[in-house]
Amino acid sequence: MIRPPTAAQRRLIEAADPVTGRLTGTQAQLAALVKRGLAFRHPRPPHDHFLTPAGHRIRETPAGEPAPGAPAAAESGVFAARVGGEEAEDAGSARMREVHSAWQGLLELRRMTNPGGATDRPCGWERTHLVRAAALALEAAGHRPATGDQGSGYRVRATPQPEAIAVHEPDLTALRACAATLEQAGWQVSEHTEPRTRERYVLASPRRV
């Protein structure tokens, strides 16, 4: 579970620019937020610090409450979308707002870290968190993840191939809709058939240009 920020760290987060998420503070304070996965240092001068998707979520969470989705967060502390196979959880309007906020934060991360501020292709964070990044794109677009051992719904899984994930969905129409969503989000996609089971699935990798 994500450790909640200290009171001082929360004040920095709440004082961040409401649009860009740009942070101000001492180098030690900013470095502490980076270590927790709540901020990142821009690679280009003047090397300002900005909130990550997890940092944006902290800002929208009332003080004293755990960040929504924290138990399912990745080890990096960044927001974890549902990859499929989790136990049944609330899928109401609150969850939709959380996912929307995380997706907007990720688009901002793309803008701040991709050359030329491009938001139409994945950024460095997504390339090191392939499964979570693809799942966030799918969940933000309204696709339904599989629940537990339930057959219907998408499942995003790692593959032996570098920079590639697999999306499984028993409904072929839904599978192809997932592929279209990932393509629109800047991923290269291709449809394949598993030789043994004849199951159709999609391979996707982040587009570079």
TrEMBL record:
Region (Disordered): 43-73, 189-209
Biased composition (Low complexity): 63-73
Organism superkingdom: Bacteria
Extent of Basic and acidic residues compositional bias: 191-201
Name of protein: Uncharacterized protein
Organism whose genome encodes this protein: Streptomyces cynarae
Source organism phylogeny: Bacteria, Bacillati, Actinomycetota, Actinomycetes, Kitasatosporales
